[in-house]
Structure formats: C-alpha cells, structure tokens
Design a protein that fits this description.
alpha+beta; seven-stranded antiparallel beta sheet; two-stranded antiparallel sheet; globular
Amino acid sequence: MGEKVEAGSFDLADRRMYRTKLQQCLLGLERLLDEKRFDRPRNLMGLEIELNLADSGGLPRMMNEEVLERIASRDFQTELAQFNIEVNIAPHRLSGRVLDRLAEELRTGLGYADRRAREVGAHIVMVGILPTLEAQDLVSANLSRADRYTLLNERILAMRGEDITLDIDGVEHLVYTSSSIAPEAACTSMQMHLQVTPGRFAAVWNAAQAVSGPQIAAGANSPFLFGRELWRETRPLLFQQATDTRPQELRAQGVRPLAWFGERWIDSAADLFAENVRYFPSLLPICDDEEPLRVLDEGGVPQLRELTLHNGTIYRWNRPVYEVVDGVPHLRVENRVMPAGPTVADVVANAAFYYGLVRALAEAPRPVWQRMPFGAAAANFDAACRDGIDATLHWPRGRGGSLTEVPAADLIVEELLPLAAAGLDAWGIEPVDRDRYLGIVEERCSRRTNGAQWQAAAFHRQLERGLDRRAALAAMTLRYRAHMESGDPVHTWPAA
C-alpha cells in the first residue's frame, strides 16, 4: 500500500509557491469540470493487488528486487517493503464474461510469478497481512530500495516529530513503537478502479462509501499482526496509525489523519480534491513547470501534477483519481477497502460484489446516502473491520427507511447480493459469471466464513495440537498458502 511517487526530482519546493500551484490546479480542475472536457464513459475497471513474499517455512522473504528481476514483467512492481510486490491488471470493460477473463488472467499471471519467485527461494502469498510478520521484519532497513519510499518515510516522521505508536485493541491487545513507517508495509490490499463521468462521480463515490462496511464484513482477511490476534480486518487501523503525521496534541484537536474515511457525502469530485488541499499539509511539496491555467487558456489539458501527487499521499479508502490518458482527462473512483486474497476466485468475487453493488446503489431512485447518515457508514466500516463477518451494521430498511441494526451476513444475503446481481446485469455481465462469483460471497455469509475466520480457526487448531504461537502461525500460513494455490474459495477450506 506504499504510495507510488513518480517525480523527476525530489527537490522540495518553497511551501508558499507550492500552495499557489495547488490552488491553480484546483481552479484548473474546476474549469475542466465546468467545460465538460472529460472522457466519455467506457465502463472501464482496473485492478491492483499487493502481494507478500515468504520462504518455504512461511516467514517473510526480503528479496523483491531479485523476484521482480526473475519475473521481468511490467505488470509487476515493487511495493513499500522488500517482502512486497504488486501486480497491475490492464483495464477491462465491464461486460460479458469479463469476470471469468479476469480470473484467468490473474491465475496465469500469479502462477507465472510464483514459479519465477521459487527460483530464488520465495513464494507468493496473497493475504491482507502476512501472519508470520514480526516486529523485527518491519524496520526501515527492510524498505524497498527506492528514493520515493525513503522520502515518504522521512517526510512522515519529520511532520510527526516523534516515533509512530501502534495501539490496536482487539481479540488481543498490541502496543508497539516504531521509528519508521515500515509497519505500513504489512498492509497488502486489493484496489479496484472504476472510470466515471463527472456527473456520476458523486453518486458512485457515495455508494462506494456506503458499501465499505459490507465489503469488509464479507472479505476480511487480516486478523494477525506481530503474533497477536487483533481485529478481523486489522489492516485499515494499522495503516492509519502507521502513516499518522499527527502528534498527540493535533489528534486531540481533531486534525484529520492521512488514512481517512471522510466525514460527509459529496456533491462533486471537486469536493474531495478541495478537502485534500484544505485539510492536509503536503508530504511531498514538489512543483512542476506546468502552468495549468495557461494550458487551459491555450486549449490544452493540464496534467495537474501537484494536485495528483498531493492526492496520492492522502489515503482515503475511496480515493478520487484524476488522470490524462491520450490527451483526454478522466476521473476514477479507486476503492482501497479490500485486503488481498485469499484466492483468485475470492478476489474476483469481491470485485463482482463491489462493481455490481455500486452500480445498483448509484442509480437507485432513492439513494442510500439520502437515507443514512454519513456517520453510520463510517461506524459500519469500523464495526466490520473489528468483527468481520460477525459484525452488526446499521442500514435503512423497511418502507420508512429507518436505520436498523442488522447482522452483516444477513444484510448481504437478503438485500445487498440481489442489488449486486441487478448491478451486474446493468453492466451486461453474463449471468453464469454473475451467479458464480456472487455465489461465493453468499456462501461465505451462509457459513460465516471468510479469510479472517479461517485464519483464526486454523491458528487455534494448531495451538490445540500443542504448537507455540510462532510455530502455530507458521503452520497456519503454510496451510493457507497451499489452499490459496489450489484456487478453491476460502469458504470451502477445512480448518483442521
């Protein structure tokens, strides 16, 4: 989840000049929106998955450069730490048999990458947090050897002015102090992109925010960190704390964290970019030579590099993305909610649930965000991270649409999966793919089993066999990897 910072130079600009450029970029974005110069909708989706490298005993393997050299594919890139890599899937049109094609591409690509990794003694593990990670693995010496990661580490610590403290109270309690942002590298996620028009952006983003809690409940897969069993999806809280630039006094004053759910429903994509400029000091105040307003006056399309770089270092769980492709600007919603894994089938099922549900809710005649306070969506996200498939969520139900407490699994099966199916139909997804992948989510809910539940049950089974905690986590991780490689979705895995 380490941010990609692509800049020709890392010379930091004068802050006053940088803020001026940010404001110019905002004005440029607003003009582009007013002039309706954005790309027409092409129903494009994209996918990124962050991966872990482990040795034959299930322990982290610090060798992403060697593995990437063997893979030799531009689809695979470095991530924050030396035990991370990332795979990027080319954009696909949401229609027909795209889900099955996506699954086949992932199986082929990950299988090839794993074979190459094994040549240097590594295995790919697709999971939200590698269960065998220990504190000594997450230190600055194990960050990837790239200037952008070093710079991010230095800037976050300089702004914070003190060491980073992790304090996560779940099934067990973890307190840990780090002198670097390296604990962030434990968080390996799946990011889903959806290109949208400016006119639809607010509805899609609001819908994505509303479903973040149910997404996590269905797909939680990160219950362990440093040998402790914490939240069912520990990754978001870990990420927030590991990237927090606020010292204690600023947290007490209500200053927003860089990893942020948000605080309100929006009316325009410009709302989010403006909040990012208004609320957050820049981690990387790097100025480009482009003058965005002049480019617009001359009939061109500005890259808005200061704005996109600043936006890329604010870790909203649903992030707005501005990009210029082939000379035409477009907007995307980047959903950063889900952990990686457990299997390709589970990943594609999570994608089917998200893309179908967001389409249905964004086009609903009475949108859910008009019936549910934003605070309820944020509370649902926290509850789902803490309790996973066993979470209780708040959702507007019945004729009156009153906010009702409902078990997450029941809400998903009774209400959200039918909506997701209707959304996939609206995209033109073939019914055979729709039913197959939404059926995986339904079975997880019916059996109350997702990746986090399986990991916890398998870990405790190993403890019952007499293994100590470290050995039990390693044994569980090896079983997880074996089941992951089989490709069978997680709800079918035996815990023994």
